[in-house]
């Protein structure tokens, strides 16, 4: 199915208003303006496997393996439906193959995110998730004979409160093919972790059902303060099984250091009443994605911890194996399909990514990239190294390390975990100096410290600029190179400060929960992220003298990590279009739903630049030479 089919089926005018430029101008030959570098947090490897229920006879499933995930087998055992990014890194489409892994063909391959496809019992219809028509994850159905698609959630009466979370995930068919069950965060709140204090969101899900024609929508079960996800039907169609965890646990469920603290249970209820609740498990394992294998046995995934792998409610011996995900037991009850994910080998620098903008190529880079006026890139090698500072040409040539984070008194274990090191380097206007923060980052800031440093571009002259009594970091040079704006964090003092590099005097710019400041190219304004009293994070700008505070984003979701484009526009990472999947299923990521946006400095002309399943952030436009 191509983009023209979607435009015809949904109305070209409505879709064109929502989709990135690439979706409506793909056919036109556009001269590239250059490359947009960006960072993506996502596994670099995901391959499909099949094995016996006890884990024996494991083998790769596809004859042509790529970055593949979320596979299911049709009821008749003939077709495998799966998600793949084989078109390009970050562009998820839905494919099918024969049961032996041959004959791979695309089923839905638009420029939107498509995922979680599953065939109806009779094989005539496929339910799947897509972000087409508004960038939010919704349930769609595809007629397998004609290829026609139809959106059945996020429209009409099946739509949540405007501005709130309103996405729909993990469709699954009833045995008679008359209903589709799914999870949704509709009519919930944008809530940060740690009781609303954190930047990253938690997720509250309930279980719903709907007919494939979009009628009969109703809630099966909801539990305030809990996440109920990945529903699956019993063989007789009378019960639905799901995982249940607290909303707060959906944050820890994607953080391996929360083992034993973020846990869940496998629960089933009567579909007709939402009652007759049965808890099938106990204990503190993180249990996800349950499925009835028979009327008396449920299989499920244990994520992280000493029992990681596949487990069963029947007493069948578990299959302990790390980093297997998204299990799907075959209809004959004899095999299980799953993916194996990994972050190594790491996604290499300058790896091409899918571009949603025909005027720019997209490529991957490590964190906090910034370009000097003479065309050099500086960045922190958090994913590819040990959070040291590197410089290189935009094409990757002449790459060299200019500051080594190890040997600076930091705990090496924290450095290896990406919780300590040299972060967010920035160029002085003359290109002679690179300033950065050195110390402990993220949650470590509550108990540990960091200081501002600088080093010459050739790696000499490293010196500490602040005394380290406060947690100081994320610097940015003024237009004349005489000052640095940066963020401080302590129990007594927070906000933005400006350091005069000649006098070493420090003045207070703001005293709020402010972070990630950046001086505009013309030197007239500073952009930063602020956490408001209501817990919402937004992008602000302010003059260097503290006047004219301006709020550039005002959505209830989190916006931040803003940077200036060379032309004076602001690029940032935002979450207003919501999660693209159940939060607990994501792998070792923070704000996994984050997409990259761009706007004018006055907040006008906001536009989305990515539409992937993953966390995208830290963009940098590098013009063609």
UniProtKB/TrEMBL annotation:
Keywords: Signal. Residues 1-27 form the signal peptide. Pfam families: PD40. The keyword Signal applies. Gene3D superfamilies: TolB, C-terminal domain. InterPro entries: 6-blade_b-propeller_TolB-like, WD40. Belongs to the TolB family. This is Amidohydrolase. It comes from Duganella guangzhouensis.
């Amino acid at each position: 199915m191509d983009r023209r089919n979607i435009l015809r089926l949904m109305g070209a005018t409505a879709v064109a208003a929502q989709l990135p430029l690439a979706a409506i101008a793909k056919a036109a030959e556009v001269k590239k303006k250059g490359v947009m570098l960006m960072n993506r947090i996502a596994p670099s490897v995901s391959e499909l496997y099949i094995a016996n229920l006890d884990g024996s006879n494991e083998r790769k499933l596809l004859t042509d393996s790529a970055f593949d995930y979320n596979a299911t087998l049709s009821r008749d055992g003939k077709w495998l439906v799966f998600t793949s990014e084989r078109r390009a890194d970050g562009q998820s489409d839905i494919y099918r193959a024969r049961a032996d892994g041959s004959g791979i063909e695309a089923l839905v391959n638009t420029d939107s995110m498509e995922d979680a496809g599953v065939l109806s019992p009779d094989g005539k219809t496929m339910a799947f998730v897509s972000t087409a028509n508004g960038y939010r994850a919704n349930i769609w159905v595809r007629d397998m004979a004609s290829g026609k698609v139809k959106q059945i959630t996020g429209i009409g009466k099946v739509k949540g409160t405007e501005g709130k979370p309103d996405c729909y995930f993990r469709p699954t068919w009833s045995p008679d093919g008359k209903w589709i069950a799914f999870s949704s965060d509709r009519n919930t709140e944008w809530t940060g972790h740690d009781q609303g204090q954190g930047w990253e969101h938690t997720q509250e899900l309930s279980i719903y059902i709907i007919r494939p024609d979009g009628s009969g929508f109703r809630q099966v079960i909801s539990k305030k303060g809990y996440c109920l996800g990945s529903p699956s039907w019993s063989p007789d169609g009378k019960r639905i099984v799901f995982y249940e965890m607290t909303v707060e646990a959906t944050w820890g469920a994607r953080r391996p250091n929360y083992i034993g603290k973020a846990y869940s249970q496998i629960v089933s209820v009567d579909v007709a009443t939402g009652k007759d609740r049965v808890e099938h498990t106990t204990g503190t394992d993180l249990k996800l994605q349950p499925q009835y294998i028979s009327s008396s046995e449920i299989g499920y995934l244990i994520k992280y911890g000493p029992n990681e792998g596949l487990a069963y409610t029947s007493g069948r011996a578990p299959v302990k194996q790390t980093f297997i995900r998204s299990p799907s037991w075959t209809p004959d009850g004899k095999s299980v399909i799953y993916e194996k994910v990994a972050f190594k080998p790491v996604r290499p620098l300058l790896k091409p990514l899918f571009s949603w903008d025909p005027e720019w190529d997209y490529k991957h880079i490590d964190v906090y990239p910034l370009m000097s006026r003479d065309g050099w890139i500086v960045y922190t090698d958090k994913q590819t190294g040990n959070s040291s500072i590197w410089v290189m040409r935009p094409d990757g040539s002449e790459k060299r390390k200019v500051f080594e984070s190890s040997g600076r008194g930091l705990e090496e274990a924290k450095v290896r975990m990406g919780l300590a090191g040299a972060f967010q380097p920035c160029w002085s206007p003359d290109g002679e100096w690179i300033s950065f923060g050195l110390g402990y980052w993220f949650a470590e800031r509550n108990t540990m410290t960091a200081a501002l440093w600088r080093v010459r571009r050739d790696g000499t002259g490293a010196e500490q600029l602040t005394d380290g009594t406060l947690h100081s970091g994320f610097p940015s040079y003024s237009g004349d190179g005489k000052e640095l704006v940066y963020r401080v964090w302590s129990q007594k003092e927070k906000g933005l400060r400006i350091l005069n590099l000649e006098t070493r005097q420090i003045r207070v710019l703001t005293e709020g929960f402010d972070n990630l400041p950046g001086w505009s190219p013309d030197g007239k304004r500073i952009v930063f992220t602020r956490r408001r009293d209501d817990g919402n994070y937004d992008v602000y700008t302010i003059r260097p003298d503290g006047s004219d505070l301006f709020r550039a984003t005002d959505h209830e979701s989190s916006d931040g990590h803003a940077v200036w484009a060379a032309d004076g526009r602001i690029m940032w990472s935002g979450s207003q279009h919501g999660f693209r999947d159940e939060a607990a299923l994501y792998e070792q990521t923070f704000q996994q739903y984050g997409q990259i946006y761009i706007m004018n400095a006055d907040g006008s002309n906001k536009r989305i630049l990515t539409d992937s399943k993953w966390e995208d952030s830290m963009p940098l436009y590098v013009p063609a030479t």
